């Protein structure tokens, strides 16, 4: 694997299997990340906690590779719902979902949505135009279906304004997302975050804009 740190990315989306004649359900997935990610599980948007029925596991099985498991014992009807696993480290986060339904004979049935959760193929970079008066943030994302793109500056969502323009162009499942900032000033410095989200999950990446003396200087990025 590469030496540099990187955001989590699924190598195997959540899958569901039964044990103990259906009394135990095991959700499992695999991902890569550096550093080790924090894992959260949700059912119908409610954060799950470990208890006598619910157990979490994360095992390292290779360089930057992790096997993530949710075990559910003594399964009951109210366990049905949309389960989501979220993996997050300081480089970004990703999530994926799987739906648990029960058939009339009380056998769990999984519904896995086909497609790709958003993954950054190229992290955000910054270009200058018009003698530094215009900045262009650009990144590339792979996703299916088409993701919703959101940009924020110092944790505040950026709206489409005469100074801020968004563009998304795609070639199949590859999307190029750009943010243009006109009439650049010192107030534009800070941390920028781009988030891509679709039905299968979401991912985010950040870049910092710093000015040394004047806005016309080349901004530095993380």
Automatic annotation (TrEMBL):
Domain Ig-like: 8-101, 118-208
SUPFAM superfamilies: Immunoglobulin (SSF48726)
Gene3D superfamilies (UniProt xref): Immunoglobulins (2.60.40.10)
InterPro entries: Ig-like_dom (IPR007110), Ig-like_dom_sf (IPR036179), Ig-like_fold (IPR013783), Ig_I-set (IPR013098), Ig_sub (IPR003599), Ig_sub2 (IPR003598)
Record-linked PANTHER family: IMMUNOGLOBULIN
Protein name: Myomesin
Organism of derivation: Culex quinquefasciatus (Southern house mosquito)
Lineage: Eukaryota, Metazoa, Ecdysozoa, Arthropoda, Hexapoda
Gene responsible for this protein: 6033678
